[in-house]
Amino acid sequence: MCGYIDVHCHLTGGEYGDMEQLLAGLEEVGVKKVITAGFDIPSSVAGMELAERYPMVYFTAGFHPTELKKYREGDLDRIAALLFHPKCVALGEIGLDYHYDDTDKPLQHRLFAQQLEMAARAGLPVQIHSRDCAEDMYNFLKERKELLGCGALLHCYSHSAELATEFAKLGLYFSFGGTSTYKGSKRAKKSIAVIPAERLLTETDSPYLPPASKYDTFPNTPASIPEITANMAALKGMEVEGMAAAVWANAHALFKKLG
Description:
Oligomer: single chain
Number of helices: 9
CATH architecture: Alpha-Beta Barrel
Radius of gyration: 17 Å
Number of domains: 1
Low-confidence stretches: none
CATH class: Alpha Beta
Distance between the termini: 17 Å
């Protein structure tokens, strides 16, 4: 088996203690590569520094929609500079999030569009965060389909199975994490069942969203990937090894700088 991969986690917040011990533990359970996702300037730079230090770690750089109160003019230039690092595999995480009452939708839309354009110019895929905005997200991406030519991932996919089919027509990939292992996660389970195996990826979004076996524990870690993969395999009627191999191939097809 090629190994497991976590395409979206957050390793830069200091929640895990000794990083070398964490990564050694991942290798013991077969997780061979992880992508730590940036959500603002400090986390993107810290992701780069981890990737430079540890061979199994890669990173993304971007400005998350709920972090835009921190945004200052010129920050996108700093993100753009990080995109050319050999271990920066995508621009992200970026997107739309209407969860909070004080959401500045025009600012989210402007920064999302600008970062999609940046990724297209850099020849990189994007990692997309999408919460409580299903219809707007679909229309936004459909109108900008030409900017998605290098690939896009809807991370921790939470919209309907029906809409997943429409997103797939735009060429998107979908990743699922620990919440998809819960009995009550009917929407995620239906989505995994209908999405083609060649469009599925595994993530943890750690230190958050632990799987069923680690319910209510913190921090979650990328060591949860085997459980998430097994759940996905069961939903697809596949062997775990086959699912892991498919995810590994999908990740390397989307994130070409994984090597």
